[in-house]
From TrEMBL:
<dbReference type="InterPro" id="IPR030930">
    <property type="entry name" value="AIDA"/>
</dbReference>
<feature type="signal peptide">
    <location>
        <begin position="1"/>
        <end position="29"/>
    </location>
</feature>
<keyword id="KW-0547">Nucleotide-binding</keyword>
<dbReference type="InterPro" id="IPR012332">
    <property type="entry name" value="Autotransporter_pectin_lyase_C"/>
</dbReference>
<keyword id="KW-0067">ATP-binding</keyword>
<keyword id="KW-0732">Signal</keyword>
<protein>
    <submittedName>
        <fullName>ABC transporter ATP-binding protein</fullName>
    </submittedName>
</protein>
<dbReference type="Pfam" id="PF16168">
    <property type="entry name" value="AIDA"/>
</dbReference>
<dbReference type="InterPro" id="IPR050909">
    <property type="entry name" value="Bact_Autotransporter_VF"/>
</dbReference>
<dbReference type="GO" id="GO:0005524">
    <property type="term" value="F:ATP binding"/>
</dbReference>
Length: 682
């Protein structure tokens, strides 16, 4: 064939083209390397240049691929692992990358470059000086703004660092997201929505912290912060101004930092430990946590102006979780402690004229003077001393090693002296209570009529003072001339004694096993409880006095009852006992009771034998299985029989035979009910 013929030439060219396609070396570009105009849907695995004349759409940048958008436009690129996109200017034209997705690769934005709407699934975005990133969403991976600007960024699981005078504006940091603002950078209009922001040697302005978000500030400035539900901490000589703290929000000011112009609302927390907080407005329900150890705080609360300066706290208000520590050699004046507020007066510290309202707590290990307790609690701990406390309502607890002097205990209030605690000169007004635990000390007590003393004769208990009748003592295991009324109670413990005790309305004397009492006067409304094995001699029981006892072997009670008759319980027998007004007698198996009188609200339980009991109106007696009752006289009371009752006389009231038996019952106006297979034999 003629090689110069047109047919041959055409065939040769075609062969060369086919050969070129068949034998193209691996990695040869299958994309446009220098984009002029518009190219779509290319995969870049080498170098591609997009200048001001070019636009790419939906480019796929894979491993070893690099797209340089210098003055041009890239839309919808996907940057895979090992892929790289560089955005900058060219010939004064701005390079633009729109709606890029980074999935393991990297995007760098230089001077004159703008990235808009980038999504970082994984991988990195770098924004250098003069570069701008708008509307980036960081789901994973990281963004680094090094001297550049980032606007409207959403950090939703990844991280961003703004450094070397970079600027981030309008950032939202969600939970699991984080942003670091360092090296002279600026963050403005940030919302920390459960995420974390770290600020060092930089400035943050107009920040909102909510949903448990956290901002940590070091050697920096924080301006115009709103804390709705999270924490801002100022550290290492940081400053803050114009902070608003709402419920669930906290600002922490460390011992080198300063915060100025602070509005703290109900449920918000201002925590200042050694630092400075000025121009504070503490609204009702706001929480202040602070101390006097180098701390400076000043502002207003609902009571007026307050301050902490030079180790002195004046007019501080604590409530809703607020707390004040008065450190060693510090002092506090006119502190008000409301519900859930607490104050600790530490060793060698002083507090004067404190008011503790309902729910407030004051702990004292130093000195507290002229405290007023209006429903709250004052704890006097080891080495603590409280002088001149007035308990209008609420409680003063004197712990081991603590001491209270000259306390007024008003109606509805109480003073509690624990083991090795000491109360001197306590005045108990009507309705007030002095409670002394085993081993507690109370000297110079003035027990007014209608007040309550609660104590016992246990080891180390040492009480002396005056009641409405005489001088009284409880010391060395012996109580003398104690008056019990209005919830007052004395427990005589084993191997100790009480003499000349008076039990008035609301008072109670408890005599434990192997304990002894002598010459007890049991008046109307009082209770004498002699436990099994206890001893009470020369009891004078007045009408309405309640005796609680049993016929258990070893129990010994002797005296006169409200009818002037001698009565006793001894040697497993009770005779002439009167039960009324919540008084009760248990007749145990193998013992007996004779001629008992049960008046209104008296009760008798018989497991042994009973003879000649009189049940008057509203009195009750129960005869249990295997127990017997003989010749009971029921005059308005109620007898329930599970055992055997013989020759009962029912004048009024009721006898219920509930599975038990009766014999020779005389019914003269009352009723007898037989149930549950009971038997009544006449």
């Amino acid at each position: 064939m003629n090689r110069t013929s047109p047919y041959y030439c055409r065939r040769s060219v075609l062969s060369l083209l086919i050969s070129a396609l068949i034998y193209a070396p691996p990695g040869m570009a299958a994309f446009t390397t220098n984009v002029i105009g518009v190219v779509n849907d290319e995969t870049v695995d080498g170098n591609q240049k997009v200048d001001e004349r070019g636009t790419t759409n939906n480019t796929h940048i894979i491993n070893h691929g690099q797209q340089n958008v210098h003055g041009g436009v890239s839309n919808g690129s996907l940057i895979e692992s090992g892929g790289y996109q560089d955005i900058g200017s060219h010939n004064n034209f701005v390079g633009q990358a729109n709606n890029t997705t980074i999935n393991g690769g990297r995007q760098s934005i230089h001077d004159g470059g703008i990235s808009t709407g980038t999504t970082i699934e994984s991988g990195n975005q770098d924004v250098y000086k003069g570069g701008i990133s708008n509307g980036t969403t960081i789901k994973g991976g990281a963004s680094r703004v090094e001297g550049g600007s980032a606007n409207g960024i959403l950090i939703d699981g990844g991280s961003q660092i703004v450094k070397v005078q970079g600027h981030a504006d309008g950032t939202t940091i969600n939970k699991s997201g984080s942003q670091d603002v360092v090296q002279g950078s600026l963050a403005t209009n940030t919302t920390i929505n459960g995420g974390r922001q770290y600020v060092e040697q930089s400035t943050v302005e107009t920040t909102t912290i909510k949903n448990g978000g956290e901002q940590r500030v070091y050697e920096s400035r924080a301006l115009d912060t709103t804390i709705e539900g999270g924490t801002q901490s100022l550290n290492s000589k940081s400053t803050a101004k114009n902070t608003h703290i709402y419920s669930g929000g906290t600002q922490i000011v460390d011992n080198t930092s300063t915060s100025d112009v602070i509005e703290v609302y109900s449920g918000g927390v201002l925590d200042v430990s050694g630092g400075t907080a000025t121009n504070v407005t503490q609204h009702d329900g706001a929480i202040l946590k602070t101390n006097t150890n180098g701390t400076t705080v000043s502002g207003t609360n609902s009571e007026g102006a307050f301050s902490i300066h030079n180790h002195v706290a004046d007019n501080v208000l604590l409530e809703n979780g607020g707390h004040l520590d008065i450190n060693a050699y510090g002092s506090a004046n006119k502190t008000i402690i409301k519900d859930k507020g607490t104050m600790s007066v530490l060793t060698n510290a002083k507090a004067d004229a404190t008011r503790i309202d309902n729910g407030g707590v004051m702990d004292v290990a130093g000195n507290a003077t002229n405290t007023i307790i209006n429903g709250g609690t004052q704890n006097i701990n080891n080495y603590g001393i409280a002088t001149g406390t007035n308990i209008n309502s609420g409680t003063q607890n004197i712990k081991s090693g603590g001491k209270a002097d000259t306390t007024i205990i008003s109606s509805g209030s109480r003073q509690v002296v624990e083991k090795d605690g000491t109360a001197i000169g306590s005045n108990i007004s009507a309705g007030g209570s002095l409670i002394v635990y085993t081993g507690g000390i109370a000297h110079g007590v003035n027990q007014e009529t209608g007040s309550a003393l609660v104590a016992n004769t246990g080891a180390g208990t040492d009480i002396e003072g005056y009641n409405k009748l005489s001088h009284f003592t409880i010391t060395g295991g012996e109580a003398n001339y104690v008056v019990l009324e209005n919830t007052g109670e004395l427990t005589v413990v084993a191997k100790t004694s009480a003499k000349n005790t008076t039990i008035d309305t609301g008072g109670k004397l408890i005599v434990q096993k192997e304990a002894k009492t002598d010459s007890t006067r049991l008046n109307n409304g009082g209770v004498l409880e002699v436990q099994d094995g206890g001893e009470a001699k020369h009891v004078e029981q007045q009408s309405g006095g309640a005796l609680i006892a049993s016929t258990t072997s070893g129990t010994l009670i002797e005296g006169t009852n409200s009818y002037g008759d001698a009565f006793y319980i001894r040697n497993s027998e009770a005779k002439n006992v009167v039960l009324e007004n919540a008084g009760s007698l248990t007749v145990v198996t193998g013992s007996r009771a004779v001629d008992t009188i049960i008046n209104a609200n008296g009760k008798m339980d018989v497991y042994g034998k009973d003879v000649g009991t009189v049940l008057n109106s509203a009195g009750t007696q129960t005869i249990y299985a295997s127990a017997t009752s003989d010749k009971a006289n029921i005059k308005g009371g109620k007898q329930t029989v599970y055992g055997l009752a013989t020759e009962a006389n029912i004048e009024s009231g009721e006898q219920i035979v509930d599975g038990g038996s009766t014999e020779k019952t005389h019914i003269n106006g009352g009723t007898q009910t037989v149930q549950n297979y009971g038997k009544a034999i006449r």
